[in-house]
Amino acid sequence: MKCIGVLTSGGDAPGMNPAVRAVVRTALSKGIKVMGINRGYSGLINGDIEELTRTSVSDIIHKGGTILKTARCQEFKQEEVRKKAVNILKVFGIDGLVVIGGDGSFQGAKLLSDLGVATVGLPGTIDNDLAYTDYTIGFYTAVNTVLDALNKIRDTSSSHERVSIIEVMGRHCGDIALYAGIAGGAEQIIVPEKDYKLDEICKSIIEGKNSGKTHNIIILAEGVGGANELAKEIEDITGVVSRATILGHIQRGGSPVTFDRILGARLGAHAIDTLIEGRTARVVGIKNNKVFDMDINEALQAKSDFDEDLYELAKILR
User: Fold this and answer.
1) Where is the binding site for Mg(2+), in residues?
2) Beta strand pairing status for 242-246 and 163-168?
3) pTM greater than the 0.85 cutoff
4) pLDDT at site 304
5) What CATH number did the domain enclosing 177 receive?
6) Which residues of the chain have pLDDT under 50?
7) Dmax over Cα atoms in the chain, in whole Å?
8) Per-residue pLDDT tens for 258-280?
9) Which residues lie below 8 Å from residue 291, measured CB to CB, with a gap of 6+?
């Protein structure tokens, strides 16, 4: 393999830049040329490609987002568009492709591999919703961002003696809510994997108020419902002033924490080794702190394994 391409696709995640840096510098150390594909699959089909050097990835390890930019590309679902992408890769002499992104990005990598392109995927998504790996790049930084917001909201919630509902990302996976809720001492954690009973939450709020509790923090994953609606329901039932905070895309930004920088570095380096060894249609992940690669089809079919023990611990500690 003489030349590889690297792209970031889908939603950005803190740690993508350290992963890009690792891909580039590992490849160059093995005598492999690297081409950066800007704006994901959209940039690929439009030939938005440039050579990357060691200098190209200097001073990016601490930066959030992705220097390669990212975009969603619905037209990539069309076979003729993917065939164009294959031709673009050939024009630029790219022998293998590293794709950093989430489920949709992996689907694109799989479809390219079906057309003969050597592909390797790296899990870059804050939601931690790729079941084949313990952690995805960007997850821990997003949790820290939520925790920082929670700490600040607790101050004003206590001052005004109110209920604060914090809505976080996680349409199908509640890991951000679960981890941030435990770390921040939230009274309630509502995730898509588990049913919740509004009456029980309201009872807990009323009992807490009667015993002198001055605030309540509720973490709500966006996949369950809206924070504004929940706040209104709780206030109507309990009479306690309730306010919603929707953190939104602040969770995607910020300098990646240590864990995400190291994870990006380890997975990025492994991706290059995978391509060099001739393994294709693979994804790289981490289990029990061991980096591994596996078939992309198996990874996409892996079933989510919600951490019941952690959820039960949260209920004990609240």
Assistant:
1) 103
2) parallel
3) yes
4) 86
5) 3.40.50.460
6) none
7) 71
8) 999 999 999 999 999 999 999 99
9) 266, 267, 270, 284, 285
Q: Look up residue 137 and give its two tokens.
A: 């790049």
Catalytic residue among 59, 95, 114, 127: 127
The pLDDT value given to residue 289: 97
Q: Exposure of 122 by Cβ count < 10 A (0-12 exposed, 13-18 middle, 19+ buried)? A: buried
Q: Does 48 qualify as catalytic in the annotation?
A: no
Let me know if 39 is exposed, middle or buried by CB neighbors in 10 A (0-12, 13-18, 19+): buried
Residues 313, 181 share a domain:
yes
Report the binding-site residues for ATP.
Answer: 11, 72-73, 102-105
Q: Which amino acid is at 180?
A: A
* Same-domain status, 115 and 20: yes
The Cα 169–Cα 10 span in angstroms is: 15
Annotated binding site: 11, 21-25, 72-73, 102-105, 125-127, 154, 162, 169-171, 185-187, 213-215, 222, 243, 249-252
